[in-house]
UniProtKB/TrEMBL annotation:
UniProt keyword Lipid metabolism, yes or no: yes
Bilayer-spanning residue ranges: none
Xref: SMART domains: PLCYc (SM00149)
Name of the protein this chain belongs to: Phosphoinositide phospholipase C
Native source organism of the sequence: Homo sapiens (Human)
Family matches, as InterPro entries: C2_domain_sf, PI-PLC_fam, PLC-like_Pdiesterase_TIM-brl, PLipase_C_Pinositol-sp_Y
Length: 265
């Protein structure tokens, strides 16, 4: 992006992934790129795998020698490098035009990147279409252009509509990164987190701004003690302590509570 950071080579990124990612990660890496490895760039296979069969991208039917398949229209071949396919799970970036265009023409292995401003507008005006889109296609949300200072937005509003990749500026600490780190502690930081069923089911009409279904729950937290509190600048090194607990989720679930203040603790 156009933030106040230096550029990184792809080689540097994958070297860092190789060195550190698999300390916790147990699965393959998802690579999102505008250009993927092709057969021409590897072994010039021209659409055939190492066994000599040709596989149709849309139907998945293998063409055998001497057999002719009749089709209404010519379909595109998916030319991929098998060596890359064996290493990672990758998706091809496709420019987002509209939800209708994606439903009609977008392939299962293609993803979209939508800017923060446009995504926020669509999430308010066409929320059901947006959620339907994220059920079928990997959707990435990226910061708006005015965030040249590497500031971040709240990722929760886009997680609420099922967006799989919410891009944050990891070099900038704060609440958005706290939410990011906290969310992916669910599986120990070892990979992907499955979306809730109402963001995956085709018959669901979930709307994060208008919850009509589901049973509410009450969350009760008992605070026992606090340890390793930072020192204060007072002469006695004692401060007035309190604990603030905040819940993030759909708007109806947003809640903030705090304990009473303990003087000179």
């Amino acid at each position: 992006g156009y933030t106040l950071t230096s550029k990184l080579l792809f080689k540097t990124v994958i070297q860092a992934i190789h060195k550190y990612a698999f300390m916790a990660l147990k699965f393959k890496i998802l690579v999102k790129n505008k250009k993927i490895g092709t057969l021409k760039e590897t072994h010039e296979r021209k659409g055939s795998d190492k066994r000599g069969d040709n596989q149709d991208k849309e139907t998945g039917v293998k063409k055998l020698p001497g057999v002719m398949l009749f089709k209404k229209k010519k379909t595109r071949k998916l030319k991929i490098a098998l060596a890359l396919s064996d290493l990672v799970i990758y998706t091809k970036a496709e420019k987002f035009k509209s939800f209708q265009h994606s439903r009609l023409y977008q392939q299962f292995n293609e993803n979209n990147s939508i800017g923060e401003t446009q995504a926020r507008k669509l999430s308010k005006l066409r929320v059901h279409e947006f959620i339907f889109h994220t059920r079928k296609f990997i959707t990435r949300i990226y910061p708006k252009a005015t965030r040249a200072d590497s500031s971040n937005f709240n990722p929760q509003e886009f997680w609420n509509i099922g967006c799989q990749m919410v891009a944050l500026n990891f070099q900038t600490p704060g609440l958005p990164m706290d939410l990011q780190n906290g969310k992916f502690l669910d599986n120990g930081g070892s990979g992907y987190i499955l979306k809730p069923h109402f963001l995956r089911e085709s018959k669901s009409y979930f709307n994060p701004s208008n919850i009509k279904e589901g049973m509410p729950i009450t969350l009760t937290i008992r605070l026992i003690s606090g340890i390793q509190l930072p020192l204060t600048h007072s002469s006695s090194n004692k401060g007035d302590s309190l604990v603030i607990i905040e819940v993030f989720g759909v708007p109806n679930d947003q809640m903030k509570q705090q304990t009473r203040v303990i003087k000179k603790n």
